[in-house]
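Quick one: ATP-binding cassette domain-containing protein from Microbispora catharanthi, C-alpha cells please.
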Amino acid sequence: MPAITLTGVAKSYGGGEHAVRNLDLTVPDGAFMCLLGPSGCGKTTTLRMIAGLEQPTAGTIAVGDRVLDSVERGLYVPPEKRGMGLVFQNYALWPHLSVRDNVEFGLRMRKVPAVERRARAEAALKMVHVDAAMDRYPSQLSGGQQQRVALARMLAVNPSVLLLDEPLSNLDARLRLEMRAELKRIHEESGATIVFVTHDQLEALTMATDVAVMNEGELQQVAAPMDMYDRPANRFVAEFVGSPPMAIVDVGPSPAGLAGSLLRFAESRVPGSLEGAQCSPTAVGIRPEALRLGPPPGATWCEEAVVEAVLPAGSSWTVRLRVLDTELYAVSYTPVEAAPGDVVTCWTERMHLFGADGARLSAWDGAASPAKGAVA
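--- reply ---
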C-alpha cells in the first residue's frame, strides 16, 4: 500500500481550541508507526481522522495518489471505503456471538461466501494464537485473549492499514508484554501498515519502526525509536521519552553549581563551541542510564555526589543523588554497594544541550565531538 500522507491537517471543535494543528506526517508503506504523547495531545484525534471517523477542519489526508480528505476541495471518503481496520481501546466484541462468529462478522457484512469466510477467520485466529478457543464466547476468555480476537477480526478482512487506539491499556503488565511481542510478530508476518496510538513510551520504543511524538496538538519529532531516544529534537521529547526521564538542569545568566560544572566540561571538549547566540545553551540534560558511579575512565565529566536513596528494581538499581545541591538520578545494572549518606563519584560521557526555544543544540559523548554549533 502507498504511504499515508497528512498535509497541513488541523482539527478544531470550536471555541478556538485546536485538538490538532498544522500536522504534516507521512506513514511509510509497511511501517509500524506509533503516535506517542500525553493525554490530550491529539494522537487519538489524528488516528480517527485517518480512519474517517473524524473530519479535519483543514488540510489533506491521502493514501498515495488517492485523496481521502480534502477540506479545500470538499472531498471526504467514508470509513467503510478506506480499506482500513480499526481496533478500539475496548474490545467491542459481540457477547452473544462465538469467537469464530465475531471474527467472521466483518466478512459477513462484506457478503464474503461462507466457505471463504470460515477459512479467513480461522487463519486470522491462528495468526493471533487463539484458534483453540474459536467456539467459546468472549465472556469465557481472558482480557488478553479478547484483545487478540479483536485483532483477528480486523486481520480477517485483510485491511491495507491497521489502526490501533491504545488497545493494550486495559491489560495487566504481563499481558501487555505478551501482546507487544504478538503485535510485532503480526506486523512482520502480515506486512500491513500499522498506526498505533499510545501514551506509553515503552510500548513505542519496543514495537515501532517509527515514532511520532505529539504535544498539545503539534508534532514534535518523527524518528526511529532509538534515534529519538539518543537524539531527541527538543526538551519535551527528551523528558517524555525515557524512564526514568532525562534530568534537565536549567542554566542561568551566570552558570554556577551543577550547570556551571556541566557547561565547563562541554566547552572543554570543543573550545569555542558554545559561542554565539544560536549556540548558547539554556539547559543541560543527562539521562539516568548515562550517569555512572565510581572512578571515571579518562576525560569525562565527574563530580562528588551524596547518595540519598537506593531503589532496587530487580534487574537494575535507581540511585537518587545530590550533586552540587541538585538532585539527579542514576540507573545501574550492577548491584550498588553505596548506602544513603555515602559520598561517591558520579561521571558521564554524554550530555545534551538545549537552547532557549527548547531545541536540542548538540550532544557530547566519549566517542565523538560535534562540530561548532552542530546538532548531533
